[in-house]
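Reviewers asked in the last cycle whether our approach scales beyond single polypeptides. To address this, we selected a multi-component target totalling 642 residues and predicted its structure end to end. The input consisted of the following lines:
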Amino acid sequence: MGNPTLHDVARAAGVSYSTADRVLNGRGGVAEKSIQRVRQAIQDLGYRRDMTAANLSRRRSYRFAAYVPQGDHGFFSAIRRAFLAESQRRAGQRIAINLRDVTEPVTDCDCAVTVGADQDRIDALTAAGIPVVTLVSDSPGARRAYIGIDNLVAGRTAGRLHRIAHRGGPARVLPILGSAGLRDHRDRLAGAIEVLGPGSLLPAIAVADDPGRMRALLEQALRDDPGITGLYSIGAGNRGLIPLMRERGGDRPFVVLHELTPHSRAALQDGLIDVVIDQKPAEEVARALDAMKAIADGEAPAPVAITPAIFFKDNLPGDTP
Amino acid sequence: MGNPTLHDVARAAGVSYSTADRVLNGRGGVAEKSIQRVRQAIQDLGYRRDMTAANLSRRRSYRFAAYVPQGDHGFFSAIRRAFLAESQRRAGQRIAINLRDVTEPVTDCDCAVTVGADQDRIDALTAAGIPVVTLVSDSPGARRAYIGIDNLVAGRTAGRLHRIAHRGGPARVLPILGSAGLRDHRDRLAGAIEVLGPGSLLPAIAVADDPGRMRALLEQALRDDPGITGLYSIGAGNRGLIPLMRERGGDRPFVVLHELTPHSRAALQDGLIDVVIDQKPAEEVARALDAMKAIADGEAPAPVAITPAIFFKDNLPGDTP
DNA sequence: GCGAAAATGACAGACGTCAATCATTTTCTT
DNA sequence: AAGAAAATGATTGACGTCTGTCATTTTCGC
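The resulting structure, written as structure tokens, was:
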């Protein structure tokens, strides 16, 4: 009928429930041959511990902490919103998500997620014995899972879109970096170079994710090189890019940028930009929580590959983003 | 500390546990004023029934049935695989998924999902009092949730990609239908027309999702109209399209088609086609199961919008699709 | 105000696991 | 072989909910 219980395992192994329990939960004090027999019975019966019963008994509710940078970049606030929504959605599943600011100190919890490569915090959490999942921005080192897009792939995607848009013709695409120091941005740029080749990509300008700088530097670049046929904005600060495109009217380069925000969405709809590559923050958050739950349950988190979404003016998601 | 329990609710409402339980589970035989007080207490305390404990007690494991059409189209087999994988993944959550063939009769279960618009089956399930979720293909009527892409949006996306690829030049795009009778296909075509306009879209040919027909009819069409600059394959049967593109060498139209299968994937990598629009079967299945669980728990399923994925040769998902 | 019906309370045994205690048996030491 | 140590078994009471029974109280019709 139903799945086998630990009682069934104990019976099959010819030991008492207590012994089976000691083996399962590693409480020690069990003879090697008993351990083997219990393990074998678990195998044979295909026993899987019922996590709902286990958690009920432990009266454990998963305590997760999420460290999200400040800033209303639009992107981080989308991440925040996603965490709150998931927190709501999983309330019946004994999952409590503590949304914390990056400035707050580390507190105890079952698993933590950091948004962005905040190495110091990751180290602090790891030192405290808390497993860490990184979201959005990977950071090599002792973390248990990375959830986010592959930025090399994202960059290649942007490059491919420019290629398609320049079909048959030569391309002069200007890449706009937030900062050359950010690994994510470097990866995206590298991806674009892979597809477009160095010949079609101009030297990147860096605008520090700042709309003002974006506007100033981009205006300058477009004046200096009237032959620019494409823009690839790798980081943030696109509020400075959009009005420039509006001013140019019909004659503007093909524009690809990242992250679907209210601004970029409106610009797409207005035909001021062409493509938005989006990380799907809500999905990333949901997957991150799945991974955290798996880690807290002592399982290996399922590897997830998030393919960035590609938005045109025609396939924008509705009111349920 | 933890969440309030039904005991807490009863205490706050000034009634016994029994009465609170009767209200919560609608067992009847409760005075109106007691109902109100319990409801109020639930509100005040923010009580949410602990589903894990409830399910444990009911010794309920969710019994779901999935009706997937036969056929190794590649797409349906991907759906099947996704169901099996999710079945595995959720084994610890007392979720049993019964993958059934469309020819099998309806059996009792907590919620069913049909892939494709199989109205007869939906009616049979509904008549048996089983809530139904439809996957991939919507069918208006008494069903509880639809999980799948918006095919109008998918068609618009295809149209937009052709537009981008034809930037500055006139377009002659040939749409290739599976069948004009399928609502999904009609929607996709309509979407493409919205973006490209009737002027750029040639009259559609219909190939009945059959590779042989595809090959024959498409070859004919390309001969008849050498000015074709784009193909939009709306249905299946692309195994007949791909070799044609190979034969044409460098000079081929811009090709957009649907569903990432081993064939279409290889064709993308070989540069024989340009874009694949994919429904993300694995994600659809996962979302469908979420919805089914919510329905079985008596909650309203969260509305989900699945944005079709757009694949080029550069952003194909790795070994974890 | 009386009897019947309705409403309520009290309680108990599940569900599968955890965690602890204590008694008993087996194995090891020398 | 006796005593110590290790291993095992038996048992119990949670966790929060469901479901049932049964006794008691309240309400209602007349």
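The mean pLDDT of chain B is 86. We regard this as preliminary and will revisit it once experimental data from Aim 1 are available.
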